[in-house]
Amino acid sequence: SPSTLPARLPYVPRVPPMALLGKVTATTFALDRPCCVFDRHANTSDTVWLVVAFANASATFRNPPSRADVPLYKQLPTTHSYMTLETAAAVYACPAPSPAVLRVGGDTACKDQGRQDPCNGPLPSPGPYRVKFLLMGCHGPKAETRWSDPILLRRALSPSTIDPVPTRRGSDVVVIASLLASLGTVLATAVLGALGAKVWSSLYQRDLGTSAFACRSYWTHHIPPALPQPLSPGCQCSPPGLGCLALQPPAPC
After folding, report:
1. pTM for the complete prediction?
2. Backbone Cα Rg of the chain
3. Which domain holds residue 61?
């Protein structure tokens, strides 16, 4: 009956603990799906809703007696709570389907079109917010989870708070960092140059020790050209291959 209090379930909604792109933004946040939570209480015609409320207003939230009384997204500024993400209870039954997360505030068209049906529009402020899941049947609420811990959204920086001119301290830090980087480059160059000179000197001395004769004998232009030598008076050259023939004086008569 409508006067029956919904069953209190021990499940606590939470933002996924694992790394997730866009897990919490300035207007949205992700939630784990409440899979296998309502199986003992849900029928095929039941639906599961997500209740979103400002953290300081969650204690005063009252479950609606019927779907017609569900607080809408556009009422959030005045009622400080709304209900969204109406989903068939069978979707959250075991085994858990994928994807494993829900995104609260992901419907940007919801705010622009001013739709009357429950929608999942962007959250208007950083919060913090608390959420809970509510199982609704034909005669009203049947089961509900606990409220989540406060969820604080990221804060977007206002353009007016950004200083386009760096502070003096920041400029000094940049100059010091640049000088240190330049000094490191100079020291590295000097060390590499010293090592290269030492290696070159070692290789040059080794080459002088092993091939000094070859170097001295190669520079032949330092040796003065040899002058032709006169023939010995007692010898004349014979045809090639026969050497020199000695000339004997004629025998005396």
Report:
1. 0.61
2. 49
3. 7-157
